[in-house]
Amino acid sequence: MKAKGSAQRALTGTTLGFFFGFAAVALYGPTAAKFKEAMDLTPALTGLLIAIPSLSGSLLRIPFGAWVDTTGGKKPFLILLILSVIGLGGVTLLLSTSYPNAMKGMYGMVLFFGFLSGCGIATFSVGIGQTSYWFPRSRQGFALGAFGGLGNLAPGIFSLILPIFLSYYGFISAYFAWFLFLLTGTILYAVVGVNAPYFQYRKAGVAEIDSRDKASAAGQELFPGGSVIDSLRNSARVKNTWALVALYFTTFGGFIALTAWFPTYWNEYQNFSPVKAGLFTAIFSILASAIRIPGGSLADKFGGERIAFAAMAVILVASGTLSFSTTSPSCISMAILLATGMGIANAAVFKLVPAYVPNAVGGAAGWVGGLGAFGGFVLPPVMGTIAGSLGAIGYARGFMVFVGLAIVDLVIIAILLRSKKYQPLKAQ
Predict the structure, then answer these.
(1) Structural domain count, the chain
(2) Chain mean position to CA 326
(3) CB-based burial label for 372 (10 Å; 0-12, 13-18, 19+)
(4) What is the pTM of this model?
(5) DSSP letters for 69-83
(6) Nearest partner of 17 among 76, 89, 71, judged by Cα
(7) Three-class HEC string of 242-311
(8) Alpha carbon 362 to chain centroid distance?
């Protein structure tokens, strides 16, 4: 037999699936006030409702990412998207039948559906592994940068579209439209997504050695080293996996945190209108996502560690300046610089995942993607505490969190560079 599909088709499938997987999460923050009013929620319960999709979307990356090393990725990817469809469909049905007068006592169910809705974000670690097994080492940076960059455009695009949609069509219609959007994306991934040759041969019953030989002849360079538990265990034993977790906690966790933080910052500290605050937040989100694509190519050419070091230095300068800047032009320019640094660093980190852990890419992607994304759940409350204790100026001082993280990360990257365990391949 001949393996089906191509690397380009696989990249298209994972990117589309990840992009559509963000559909549900984009709804909860902007519509939280509706739930708060209908169910008479406290601020803490409202905050948990907003955060729950991000929580499931980060933690589920760990086991589902590792599962790629035994299946190739398509099965766990589809399961996550289907769970997200069930979650978003469930809350849409609940709203259609019970909102607003019959919502009291429904909080637990809404929270459950919100947890399921977040499963779409967990497709990130699955897509990283599935894409990595298709592409040669010399093109990992480009492929993973394109996957993460284009897929991560979703939050910024949705933040622009959703307010307009809500104003014209209303609350419940938005949930129904986003449900159809997610369902469409799930079907598209089911049609386009394809596993790397090795996994296709193994599924067809070809012997292990023959599967590797045939896949190698088809251009596959990376191969898994065991079961899901083996993948998690083997990747956890590589100390550089934890170095990458720390870097990704700052860059991608920071990206998620700042996408949630910037609307308040622009409104409370710079006195921007909600629409203007949303616009500049969208600029940050879209730029940080799109720049991952050239960032990945730079990592291919110059090495992931070197590009990560330079990008982290940019994050240090931008966050330090934002901590003390007061004028709008300065703050806007530093926010753009911060987005640039975070996006390029994100691409560089995942260039290093298959380089450091070639026999357990899925497990490593799960640890890095899952625990790194957890920063998006942890950092906003820390920044909020700073703002609450210092008053208006605290919205600026909150960026000092990233100053501290960037300094630690620069030390980590310097150690990685000094170890010289990874020799970057030049792009062919």
Answers:
(1) 2
(2) 30
(3) buried
(4) 0.82
(5) HHH-SHHHHHHHHHH
(6) 76
(7) HHHHHHHHHHHHHHHHHHHHHHHHHHHCCCCCHHHHHHHHHHHHHHHHHCHHHHHHHHHHHCHHHHHHHH
(8) 15
Helix axes 43-59, 361-373, angle to 10 degrees: 170
- Which pair of structure tokens corresponds to residue 335? 């926010």
Smallest CA-to-CA distance from 352 within 341, 368, 371 is with: 368
Residue 327 tokens read as 């004028």
pLDDT the model gives residue 51:
77
CATH code, domain with 336: 1.20.1250.20
Which residues 6+ apart lie within 8 Å of 120 measured at CB? 20, 21, 22, 23, 24, 25, 57, 80, 81, 84, 182
The verdict on 171 and 272 lying in the same domain is no
* Alpha carbon of residue 263 to chain centroid: 19
**Same-domain pairing of 215 and 251:** no
Q: Are residues 249 and 349 in the same domain?
A: yes
pLDDT for 420? 61
Other C-beta atoms lying within 10 Å of the C-beta of residue 104: 11
Q: Are 360 and 373 in contact, with CB atoms under 8 Å apart?
A: no
Residues 201 and 245 in one domain: no
Q: What is the pLDDT of residues 373-394, one digit of tens each?
A: 888 878 888 888 888 889 889 9
- Tokens for 94? 């609940």
User: DSSP class of residue 359?
Assistant: T
What's the CA gap between 311 and 400, in Å, rounded? 17
Can you read off the two tokens belonging to residue 379?
Answer: 């950092």
Contact 365, 271 (CB under 8 A): no
Of 339, 349, 342, 242, the residue nearest 305 (C-alpha)? 349
Query: Dmax of the chain from CA atoms?
Result: 67
